[in-house]
Each structure stands twice: as structure tokens, then as C-alpha cells.
Design a protein that fits this description.
This protein is mostly helical. The protein is built from 4 helices and no strands.
Length: about 80
């Protein structure tokens, strides 16, 4: 349904292949889910932190504020 071989899907699932955004969008469309739903929240946060280490302090602070706004509200 997403025009990928079983071999490629297996490699993506095992973390051996790095799919492009187009491939991820194709997979999410075939599964009828949002592309972001293909990732675990912790994995997305890890990737975001890694990316933040490569940018200026000002951009880091902006990104941290954005990430904090995406965190689920904590119950009292």
C-alpha cells in the first residue's frame, strides 16, 4: 500500500535504513495515521535534543520553549 518492498520496511523497522520524509508520509498514509505517530515521543525528544546541540544558544532557547509547550500537562 505504500509502494515499498517488504525488505525496505523491515530495514526501517530495525533502524538499518533511514527513510526520507516522503517515505514516512507514504507509510503513515497507508496506515491512516499522522507521520508523527510513527515515532515514540521519547525518540522525538532525543532527536530534538541532538539537533539542538548543533545550533546557536538563542535558537536552543527558542526550541526549548517550544518543546516545553508540547509536553503534556502534569496532574497535581
Amino acid at each position: 500500500m505504500c509502494n515499498l518492498t517488504q525488505s525496505m520496511i523491515s530495514k526501517i523497522e530495525k533502524g538499518i535504513a533511514n527513510p526520507t520524509l516522503d517515505v514516512l508520509e507514504s507509510i503513515s498514509a497507508a496506515l491512516d495515521v499522522k507521520t508523527a505517530d510513527l515515532f515514540e515521543r521519547d525518540e522525538l525528544m532525543d532527536r530534538a535534543v541532538t539537533a539542538l546541540l548543533r545550533v546557536s544558544r538563542e535558537k536552543q532557547m527558542t526550541a526549548v520553549q517550544l518543546l516545553e509547550s508540547l509536553q503534556p500537562e502534569k496532574s497535581p
